[in-house]
Amino acid sequence: MEASGSQVPSFVQTQTEINWEKLDKTRFYFLGAGIFTGLTVALYPVSVIKTRLQVASKDTIERSAFSVARGILKTDGIPGLYRGFGTVITGAVPTRIIFLTALEATKEAAFRMVEPFKFSEPTQAAIANGIAGMTAALFSQAVFVPIDVVSQKLMVQGYSGHARYNGGLDVARKIIKADGIWGLYRGFGLSVITYSPSSAVWWASYGSSQRIIWSFLGKDTDLKKVPPSQMTIVGVQGAGGIISGAAASCITTPLDTIKTRLQVMGHEKRPSTTQVVKSLIADDGWIGLYRGLGPRFFSMSAWGTSMILAYEYLKRLCAKDA
């Protein structure tokens, strides 16, 4: 990568990043499956609460994240916070492999593409990481959307008038019977519109914020400075994850709310995107589009920070010996 017009590699690139070609891919995929499964177990309940908030009807009593959580625990106990988890975890590994492979491969190419423009380093990082994040999201949605549709129906079953099911296979069978295979891709367009910009914003924010933080710390392009400690690197990466999650959640929550409603509505209702938007605004005004912002904000910040720390740690574990 070119740093402000110079051919000298940047501090971030040489001291804190491990590029795709330097990774042992077999070890990376094997260890990554375990690490990200653990993160999904820890943060899945937040997704259940967010989804219930987004699909709640106007007359639903539970209107806050805490009241939804209390209601779930009272009715179903801890297992209620993991409705649809089996379906999600089944698709999580292939989805994550597709995402990370596309992310790293595209990021390398994108950095080379922006080199001739001689942007500042944070700008280069934002553009390259943003392109990589968007591309990775596009590739992974083909696997993720059917998993998302099924898991969300399981998350809200029996809640606010939604039907009950006997597991993920029962959901898939009924969807295919009613709408054919394309029923599993309900909301695919909105998913792409939601997750691609969200991923682009997240990774762009992460790439640029890291470089800005290092610049404030006095370690930007001076390779002669003493390398930072691992704790400092982890701290900067964690801060970048928080900033990225906050930015992405605030920008994309309205689209996520609309997408979720479209995916969980019963077959007999079949609302259009316009009808969903009008319903949300009629119930709560424009703020209705931000239903579930609190859990989504927390989920994306917590997931983003946990994910990026685990991801960077995973890359250090899987780096090939020089």
Description:
Helix 2 packs across helix 4, helix 4 runs antiparallel to helix 5 and helix 7 runs antiparallel to helix 8. The longest helix is centred in the middle third of the chain and has 36 residues. The N terminus is likely disordered. The radius of gyration is 21 Å and the shape is globular. The chain contains 10 helices and no strands. It starts with 10 loop residues before the first helix and ends in a 5-residue tail after the last helix. It is mainly alpha-helical and 322 residues long.
Topology:
Elements: H1 11-15, H2 25-55, H3 65-76, H4 85-114, H5 121-156, H6 168-179, H7 188-216, H8 230-264, H9 273-284, H10 293-317
Helix pairs in contact: 2-4, 2-10, 4-5, 5-7, 7-8, 8-10
Keywords:
70% helix; single chain; disordered N terminus; 10 helices; mainly alpha; globular
Short description:
The chain is an all-alpha fold and 322 residues long.
